[in-house]
Amino acid sequence: QLCFAAAANLGAISSGITLGFSAVALPVLENVTESQASWIASITSIGMPFGCLLIGPMVDGLGRKRTLMFVNIPTLIGWIFIATAYEPWYLNQLYAGRFLTGFSCVLACQPAVVYVSEVTDKKLRGVLATWTVI
């Protein structure tokens, strides 16, 4: 049960990395204006409401386990955009990557809580279901 809970909650790690990424990335980006840096840091918050609107129907339609697997797709695409950003389109790639990773932050946490609550014993449910609280 601990292994299932840990696997389901791995998405929360990606969410934390997404939220903290701009703090370490912005100081090393060259030729970025203050306005562009502000967009890079905050565009994840623009993607999050879209994830909130989509997660309910996804969990009901696909199920908890499949939704947890599907969440990896926009996360992976977003991080690939960020990792491969280069001139002349690097800002657009960073914006798109940050939007997708913000979108998937929300997608990663809600189904994990439901899935863990369904597969664990009553004794462990309270502890294991609160691992993803952001």
UniProtKB/TrEMBL annotation:
Its main location: membrane. It is found in: Membrane. GO terms for molecular function: transmembrane transporter activity. It is a multi-pass membrane protein. InterPro entries: MFS_dom, MFS_sugar_transport-like, MFS_trans_sf, MFS_Trehalose_Transporter. The chain crosses the membrane at residues 38-56, 68-89, 95-116. Keywords: Membrane, Transmembrane, Transmembrane helix. GO terms for cellular component: membrane. Residues 1-134 form the Major facilitator superfamily (MFS) profile domain. This is Major facilitator superfamily (MFS) profile domain-containing protein. It comes from Diploptera punctata (Pacific beetle cockroach). The lineage of its organism: Eukaryota, Metazoa, Ecdysozoa, Arthropoda, Hexapoda.
